[in-house]
Design brief:
The chain is of the alpha/beta class. The chain is built from 15 helices and 15 strands.
């Protein structure tokens, strides 16, 4: 079969983009043809998968998504057996859905009247609405529940796939083979500091401000953020906030990084104080690498922290005092050592790595019409 994989932006270092490429390769390995479509690309493109650019112009991100959807419909017409989207777009046979439902959000009526909301809701409705035939590959149970409430999407159109952690990114041995000390030294981190690691590209959504605020009350801690460059607009805001709180010397912005297992090995805790996260893949990446986790309960993968007994889950509504208390508990090296051992043991479960293969299998299966 010939597959069209559609993703609005193809950035090799992004989590969704990595999933797209891994699933494309898994489908190709089964003997099928795959072409990737994107409106924008960045960095070196994959040499083993065909990529077609559909450049579209728009003043807004939602406008770009709408126009990309129209361009995609024209580009794939009559050429492919199945169209698979990694963003919500019209006319998809399958959607690999890594997003939360916008229709399910509790928003003010004025927000719902904005062009951005109306455009994104229409794209969501094209995949989940009553007239859609798109089959959805979902990543977390809360995500499925939210879409079902918002759209009444039939259960038979949504399939929950297992986590999709890349086995190559599981490197718990880096904590004991000398890598930990080497990376800490390279980053200028104190050998005795409690190193908190946060990863992401959306500071507000991922709660980086919460982590910076907690530094004021954790004088022995240093915060490392991977994904935000210091010279970027977001980086300048974070550094400014840290300066006003007097903790700028204990904040390290690294920008986008590919050496995530090494950063996890160099750290003492993953601090994922997100306000919204469909899964929080970084939570599981930390666990399988033996790094204890403090995460908010809004994250789809937060239950893994409890199952592994590998850290603390902060319940909603978020309270700074609860985060302070969690950091105080995590300051105990003995407790962290036990959490780390529990996490590494949990990471041996093969179910944590089956998501990509399961998604590829679902895409190539015959579909009843």
């Amino acid at each position: 079969m010939r597959f069209a994989f559609a993703i609005v932006t193809l950035f090799p270092w992004g989590g969704l983009q990595r999933d797209c490429l891994r699933i494309a390769r898994a489908v190709r390995a089964r003997g099928h043809e795959v072409t990737l479509f994107a409106s924008r690309t960045e960095g070196e493109l994959p040499a083993d998968v065909a990529v077609e650019r559909l450049p579209v112009r728009a003043f807004t991100n939602h406008g770009r998504n709408v126009r990309f959807g129209s361009a995609l419909a024209r580009a794939v017409q009559g050429r492919f057996d199945r169209v698979v989207g990694f963003d919500k777009l019209p006319g998809l046979d399958f959607l690999y859905c890594a997003d939360a439902s916008i229709a399910a959000r509790a928003l003010h009526p004025l927000q719902r009247a904005l062009p951005r909301y109306r455009a994104l809701r229409a794209l969501e409705g094209a995949c989940f609405g009553p007239d859609s035939r798109t089959r959805v590959l979902a990543l977390a149970e809360p995500q499925i529940e939210a879409y079902a409430r918002a759209w009444g999407t039939p259960a038979e159109r949504i399939v929950l796939v297992p986590p999709n952690i890349d086995r190559a990114r599981r490197r718990p041995e880096l904590r004991t083979d000398g890598t930990r000390a080497r990376v800490r030294a390279a980053l200028g981190l104190s050998p005795t500091a409690l190193v908190l690691l946060a990863i992401g590209t959306q500071p507000e959504v991922k709660g980086f401000d919460r982590a910076i605020d907690a530094l004021m009350r954790a004088p022995a801690a240093e915060l490392v953020i991977a994904g935000v460059a210091p010279a970027s607009a977001d980086g300048r805001k974070l550094l400014g906030a840290a300066g006003r709180k007097g903790v700028e010397r204990r904040l390290h912005l690294l920008g986008p990084r590919e050496d995530v297992p090494e950063l996890l090995a160099a750290s003492d805790l993953l601090l994922h104080a997100a306000r919204l996260d469909t899964t929080g893949t970084v939570i599981l990446e930390a666990i399988v690498n033996g790094l204890p986790v403090i995460a908010t309960s809004v994250c789809g993968y937060a239950p893994h922290v409890r199952r592994a007994d590998a850290g603390i889950v902060l319940e909603e509504p978020f309270a700074p005092a609860a985060l302070d208390g969690a950091l105080a508990l995590a300051a105990d090296p003995g407790r962290r050592k036990q959490w780390s051992a529990n996490a590494a043991a949990y990471g041996a479960d093969p179910e944590l790595y089956r998501g990509i293969e399961r998604a590829a299998s679902l895409l190539v299966e015959p579909v009843a019409r």
